[in-house]
TrEMBL record:
<dbReference type="InterPro" id="IPR018506">
    <property type="entry name" value="Cyt_B5_heme-BS"/>
</dbReference>
<dbReference type="GO" id="GO:0020037">
    <property type="term" value="F:heme binding"/>
</dbReference>
<dbReference type="InterPro" id="IPR036400">
    <property type="entry name" value="Cyt_B5-like_heme/steroid_sf"/>
</dbReference>
<dbReference type="InterPro" id="IPR050668">
    <property type="entry name" value="Cytochrome_b5"/>
</dbReference>
<keyword id="KW-0479">Metal-binding</keyword>
<comment type="similarity">
    <text>Belongs to the cytochrome b5 family.</text>
</comment>
<dbReference type="GO" id="GO:0046872">
    <property type="term" value="F:metal ion binding"/>
</dbReference>
<protein>
    <submittedName>
        <fullName>Cytochrome b5</fullName>
    </submittedName>
</protein>
<feature type="region of interest" description="Disordered">
    <location>
        <begin position="93"/>
        <end position="119"/>
    </location>
</feature>
<keyword id="KW-0349">Heme</keyword>
<feature type="domain" description="Cytochrome b5 heme-binding">
    <location>
        <begin position="2"/>
        <end position="80"/>
    </location>
</feature>
<dbReference type="InterPro" id="IPR001199">
    <property type="entry name" value="Cyt_B5-like_heme/steroid-bd"/>
</dbReference>
<dbReference type="Pfam" id="PF00173">
    <property type="entry name" value="Cyt-b5"/>
</dbReference>
<feature type="compositionally biased region" description="Polar residues">
    <location>
        <begin position="93"/>
        <end position="103"/>
    </location>
</feature>
<keyword id="KW-0408">Iron</keyword>
<dbReference type="GO" id="GO:0016020">
    <property type="term" value="C:membrane"/>
</dbReference>
Amino acid sequence: MSQLYELSEVAVQNGKNGKPCWLIIKGNVYDVTKFLSEHPGGGEVLLEYGGKDATKAFKQAGHSADAEKELKNYKIGEINSAAPIQIQPTSIAASKPAENTISEDPKPAEKSSSGFCCC
Ligand code: HEM
């Protein structure tokens, strides 16, 4: 099973201040720290995307099939995209019973307010 990372965890590994340089390509997380000095396109372009999603840049650079194969040497895991999707339905479901209980309140309130008309 692949290690799952949050976007925020990857974001801090930006290659700055002696930190490792991780980047995201097609939902996978790569540690390119040791590859910085070997990359034919230079280490600077990798550092530019340190901690970020480099999917577009990787495609736009027109990498060869060999470069695509090389990706797997640096893969350390995947982005955990399931977590935020799971949170939404539970919060919506939890709010339903609360709405029902509120809707019962206005009726007795209306009756009591009409009884207090004393002008
Ligand atoms: C782990 C990720 C990456 C790997 C394994 C990788 C690998 C390679 C390889 C093997 C080449 C030689 C040409 C080829 O075979 O296509 C190359 C060239 C190049 N790469 Fe990457 N690359 C990665 C990420 C990136 C990223 C994020 C960029 C961002 C812009 C980039 C920009 C370039 C450029 C501009 C060249 C062309 C260099 C030249 O021909 O002068 N690469 N890369």
